[in-house]
Amino acid sequence: HVEVLQRVKNKKTRNELTVSLLEQISSIGRGLCVLLGISVEDTQKDVDYMVCKILNLYLFEDENGRAWSRSVMDRELEVLCASQFTLQCILKGNKPDFHSAMPAELAQPFYNNMLEQLREAYKAELIKDGQFGAKMQVLIQNDGPVTIQLESPAGPTEPKLLSKQEKQQQRKEKTRSKGPSESSREKAALRSKADPSASSGAEGDVSSEREP
Fold first, then answer.
1. pLDDT for 123-148, tens place per residue?
2. Which residues lie within the region annotated Disordered (predicted)?
3. What distances in angstroms separate CA 142 from CA 7, 32, 192, one per listed residue?
4. Burial readout 105-134 (b: 16 or more C-beta within 10 A, e: otherwise)
């Protein structure tokens, strides 16, 4: 799935349907605002990947002011999540199409599961929920400004698996560069048997045989 992570200050949500959400979220301090777009193809592996990245990306400075060296967990900052199906938009001309977004009845438990994993991996009180499916106004002060688009990969995410895949690809390329394959040599042999006048040697041998 797709996420947009924004490093922010003084973020809050305003729900037009239930004003009480302001009491739940109110104004929280510095941290990340995560806009989450869930795809129809998303699985638990996508959740695992996103949770890991949200909590561990180096988007903050350290105690000495060195940029891009601390994560939200390192700094013990807050994370505000909001489900955002429009991130799965596909444009058909000028009209947005949202068929690639997971239907709400499936996306809500998926979203809740991700929140639960964030709370288990971090500090539950620092994970805030923008309330699934509500019509909201998200008020943020973008810090930096820093906005990161994060998309879960289609292939293996573990470094060891990626390394193994790269080595396999390199071996395939080396095999291709070693000349004709077994199947090519077999085809050449069959052609020679079918045509006795064909030479299995170099072209020079053929021309010399045809000279008077």
1. 999 998 887 877 777 777 888 889 99
2. 149-212
3. 6, 9, 73
4. eebeebbeebbebbbebbeeebbbbbbbee
Q: Is the pTM of this model over 0.85?
A: no
DSSP H helical ranges for 62-198: 104-121, 159-176, 182-194
The predicted-structure confidence for 194-212, as pLDDT tens digits, reads as follows 555 544 444 444 344 444 4
DSSP label at 138?
A: E
Q: CA 82 → CA 15, 26, 105, 206, distances in Å?
A: 12, 14, 16, 76
CA distance 128 to 115: 8
CA 46, CA 53: separation in Å to the nearest integer? 11
What CA–CA distance (Å, rounded) separates 201 from 198? 9
Q: Is 91 helix (H, G, I), strand (E, B) or coil?
A: strand
Q: SS3 for 34?
A: strand
Distance separating alpha carbons of residues 169 and 86, to the nearest angstrom: 36
C-beta separation of 66 from 115 below 8 A = no
Residues of the chain with CATH 3.50.80.10: 2-154
What architecture does CATH give domain 2-154?
A: 3-Layer(bba) Sandwich (3.50)
